[in-house]
Specification:
alpha+beta, three-stranded antiparallel sheet, two-stranded antiparallel ribbon, extended, 7 strands, 20% strand, 156 residues, 3 helices
Length: 156
């Protein structure tokens, strides 16, 4: 999973309060602080914190977050808190458990298909999936004509 940090930057955000000249220092401080957090067993919670400006260049990059927080690869389904000696304990809020953020590219896709006799099987996509391919795949699996539907089936 990964999370994102977007600074409330003056001149970029409507009510921005962070001086654009302080961006580098503030991002470095945030990254260092996040790097201090540990899971309850003492292992590092954050694998890395990356500056989006160093990862992506081009048009509309100002719309992206400033930092990408890459959580450790360890399962976190039972994780209730992370802690830092300097910054303290942060408890998981809400009813869910684990880390908050988005799945990383490619790991959130699985095709689960019910076959003959109700046997369920997981299938690997034949290529990197796109969201528009999901409906095309369902049409193929159910024998429904796709018509002008965008996307391509993932099982081909």
């Amino acid at each position: 999973n990964q999370g994102y940090v977007r600074l409330n930057l003056r001149g970029r955000e409507r009510d921005g309060i962070v001086d654009p000249g302080a961006t580098d220092e503030l991002c470095a401080r945030i990254a260092a602080g996040l790097g201090e957090f540990r899971d309850p067993d003492g292992t590092q919670s954050v694998a890395s914190v990356e500056r989006v400006a160093e990862l992506h260049r081009g048009r509309h990059t100002e719309r992206l977050p400033d930092l990408v927080v890459r959580w450790s690869e360890r399962p976190a389904t039972r994780l209730r808190y992370v802690s830092s000696e300097r910054l303290g304990v942060v408890h998981r809020q809400g009813g869910a458990s684990g880390r908050s953020g988005n799945h990383t590219a490619g790991d959130a896709w699985a095709l689960v298909v019910a076959g003959e006799g109700g046997v369920v099987q997981a299938l690997e996509p034949s290529r990197p999936p796109r969201l528009v391919d999901v409906a095309a795949t369902v049409c193929e699996l159910t024998g429904t004509p796709r018509g002008q539907l965008p996307g391509e089936p993932l099982l081909g």
